[in-house]
Amino acid sequence: MYTADNPGKFRVQWHRFTHGSPLHPFLKTVPHVAFKVNRLSAAIEGEEIILGPYEPIDGYRVAVINDAGVPIELIETTLSEDEIWSHARSGHGSLYRSQENSGLDEIMVPGASR
Fold it and tell me: ∠ at Cα 23 (20, 29), nearest 5°?
């Protein structure tokens, strides 16, 4: 999976996938939105989890659920928007530090090219 940031004000990210990527088909074919939640564990309870939970950077936990055929990214974090996006712009931290639970085959940080 490769990620690039859109320069617009709404901080959209574009994802591309390598051939044979093991990620859930919904993540590879259906656009998704992300929502902040107070407690990730409570938000995903009883849901079909298609990615995660994982912690790409300290203080930022993520899981993606299947909501009737639409992937929904749920985020629990204490970081500010500026802190989150400064990590993305600088490439600090790994987008997916542990591939153990992520199901990812190849990862590049935002803004990187192949």
Answer: 85
* Residue 104 in this model has a pLDDT that exceeds 70: no
Fill in the amino acid letter for 39.
R
pLDDT for 69: 93
Which residues lie below 8 Å from residue 108, measured CB to CB, with a gap of 6+? 1, 2, 3, 95, 114
From edge to edge, which strands make up the β-sheet containing 33-36? 33-36, 70-77, 60-67, 48-57
Paired sense of beta strands 70-77 and 33-36, if any = parallel
Domains and CATH numbers, the chain: 2-90 (3.10.180)
Q: Which two tokens stand for residue 8?
A: 């617009």
Q: Report the C-alpha gap between 98 and 87 in whole angstroms.
A: 17
Average pLDDT, the chain: 76
In what helix (H) or strand (E) does residue 36 lie, and over which residues does it extend?
strand 33-36
What span, in angstroms and rounded, lies between the C-alpha atoms of 61 and 92? 16
Q: Using an 8 Å Cβ cutoff, are 80 and 59 in contact? A: no
The model's pTM is 0.70
